[in-house]
Amino acid sequence: MLIKIKQENKNQRLDKFLVTKLPISRSQIQKLIKGSDILVNDKKSSVHNFLQPDDQIKISAKKIKELTTEKKLEPNKKIKFKIVYEDDNILVIDKPAGLLVHPTEKMEPDTLVNGLLAKYPKIKNVGDDKLRPGIVHRLDKAVSGLILVCKTQKAFDYFKNLFQKRKVKKIYTALVHGKMERVEGEINLPIERAKGKGKMAVKSIAEGGKEAITKYTLIKQFKNFSLLEVEILTGRTHQIRAHLNAIQHPIVGDILYKQKWVKESLNLDRPFLHSAILSFKNLDGKKLEFKSKLPVKLSKILKQIT
């Protein structure tokens, strides 16, 4: 697909111009620009490119088709999950490592959402994303522990607001490489997706980084490892993993965020990161707190290094 810029479109910003030309959202357009699926004069462009007459915009028709083809979630009764708490509006689930919370663009059929749809069909209309019904926050596929799911739109709107105001307490247990220099600390480093690497990287706000704040407290110091209690005040993708790696203390078992100096191998096939505590005020004003024990596999690692 090729669009040639006319004089009347001079100095329009690339992404804003394309919103008027394509049947997809501005955020989807920006993603295509960053992924080189939209080119200007056969070159990769920035979102903030101000167009000039005779500029030629080349757009991947295949990508547009993928984004505009309706995707349908299917219930999957085979997906099993442990319910820690349930009322008329919410669920608190103890998610095992290895289970995706919701499908990606590949439309995986075996996610937590597919299992939820099988058990709670009405949840399909909850939320603001058809591919993430009921999901108001998430855990990485490789991370285990507590996650909140909303069964009603009223609950979704309420908890979305609570998360935005940082009134939901999320505490994780993490085992990291190396000895901590301080017993407690705060990591305040903006992060953004790294180009072509499938992970997040520390970037300034000017470079497109988004605010990310992580607090940690040392629970126990081992010879070459540190057991931490980690609280996140923001909810960025891979936030804990990216932040701890940025301060030279990568999480044990994390093959995506690691340092070359790490030599110890504990034969762990997942990151040692577990959502251990989830606390919030429910719709009725009652404060609830839930705790999840470390999975057996992670407990064995602690015994191994003690």
Automatic annotation (TrEMBL):
<dbReference type="Pfam" id="PF00849">
    <property type="entry name" value="PseudoU_synth_2"/>
</dbReference>
<feature type="active site">
    <location>
        <position position="140"/>
    </location>
</feature>
<dbReference type="InterPro" id="IPR006225">
    <property type="entry name" value="PsdUridine_synth_RluC/D"/>
</dbReference>
<dbReference type="InterPro" id="IPR050188">
    <property type="entry name" value="RluA_PseudoU_synthase"/>
</dbReference>
<dbReference type="InterPro" id="IPR002942">
    <property type="entry name" value="S4_RNA-bd"/>
</dbReference>
<dbReference type="GO" id="GO:0000455">
    <property type="term" value="P:enzyme-directed rRNA pseudouridine synthesis"/>
</dbReference>
<keyword id="KW-0694">RNA-binding</keyword>
<protein>
    <recommendedName>
        <fullName>Pseudouridine synthase</fullName>
        <ecNumber>5.4.99.-</ecNumber>
    </recommendedName>
</protein>
<dbReference type="InterPro" id="IPR006145">
    <property type="entry name" value="PsdUridine_synth_RsuA/RluA"/>
</dbReference>
<dbReference type="Pfam" id="PF01479">
    <property type="entry name" value="S4"/>
</dbReference>
<dbReference type="InterPro" id="IPR006224">
    <property type="entry name" value="PsdUridine_synth_RluA-like_CS"/>
</dbReference>
<dbReference type="InterPro" id="IPR020103">
    <property type="entry name" value="PsdUridine_synth_cat_dom_sf"/>
</dbReference>
<keyword id="KW-0413">Isomerase</keyword>
<comment type="function">
    <text>Responsible for synthesis of pseudouridine from uracil.</text>
</comment>
<comment type="similarity">
    <text>Belongs to the pseudouridine synthase RluA family.</text>
</comment>
<feature type="domain" description="RNA-binding S4">
    <location>
        <begin position="12"/>
        <end position="74"/>
    </location>
</feature>
<dbReference type="InterPro" id="IPR036986">
    <property type="entry name" value="S4_RNA-bd_sf"/>
</dbReference>
<dbReference type="GO" id="GO:0120159">
    <property type="term" value="F:rRNA pseudouridine synthase activity"/>
</dbReference>
<dbReference type="GO" id="GO:0003723">
    <property type="term" value="F:RNA binding"/>
</dbReference>
